């Protein structure tokens, strides 16, 4: 008998039209031979109780949902409703939907065209496919276990993201503190520079206001004039020394 992880027996639900009841019984028998607990609408419904609630509960408890695809099932609204519900469960990873084709001339419904099915019209093909199908689910966790594992994985992911976010916030706070310190130091140096310039400017202004500009200009002018007179006298005296030899040479002639 095939057992799922944790010792649970794999479960399957078969959906079929009334005309395909014998095909469904044959499929259920083959699955039961492989240790699968098979349920159908005939085995789960009770007279006097709600059909939809009992079928949905059976689908929820299953690991496999096998829908018999035929010309008859195309016209069955019950098969369509059961398959639609099973596909909604498969979207969240809680069920595997497998179409079983009894007539290869029938095109699969548009909502099952992306799913690999079983060709039930060739007996030699069916046995091997069912073996692989049952074997693939025997080592998988049940629907509830899968949900719990998925939630646990998401929780671990959220925790890792939270840790990364806290680390990023801490790094941002450190950078902000460093920038604040640098700005404070810069403002302090700028303040000292401004204070020094203000003090130096005040001292220079005081020194300039203390100077008697009239006396300073007069002294400067007198100095410049004396220097000019000295230069002129020196040039005149130099000219006198150069002209004396010429005068002496004229006298000897």
Briefly, what is this?
This protein is α/β, with parallel strands linked by helices and 253 residues long. The chain has helices spanning 21-33, 41-44, 51-60, 71-74, 77-90, 123-138, 143-210, 213-252; strands at 11-15, 37-40, 64-69, 96-101, 118-119. It contains eight helices and five strands; from the N terminus they run E-H-E-H-H-E-H-H-E-E-H-H-H.
Describe the protein's topology.
Layout lengths: L10 E5 L5 H13 L3 E4 H4 L6 H10 L3 E6 L1 H4 L2 H14 L5 E6 L16 E2 L3 H16 L4 H68 L2 H40 L1
Parallel strand pairs: 1-2, 1-3, 3-4, 4-5
Helix pairs in contact: 3-5
List keywords for this structure.
253 residues, alpha/beta, Rossmann fold, 3 domains, five-stranded parallel β-sheet, disordered C terminus
The level-1 CATH class of the largest domain: Alpha Beta
Which fold does the CATH topology of the largest domain refer to? Rossmann fold
Q: Give the overall shape, derived from the CA principal axes.
A: rod-shaped
Total number of distinct structural domains: 3
Number of helices: 8
Helix content: 55-70%
Secondary-structure element string: EHEHHEHHEEHHH
Number of strands: 5
Q: Give the strand content.
A: 5-15%
Could you tell me the mean pLDDT? 75
| Rounded Rg | 53 Å
Any idea what the CATH architecture of the largest domain is? 3-Layer(aba) Sandwich
| CATH-assigned homologous superfamily of the largest domain | Toll/interleukin-1 receptor homology (TIR) domain
Structure classification: alpha/beta
| Low-confidence sequence ranges | 140-144, 246-253
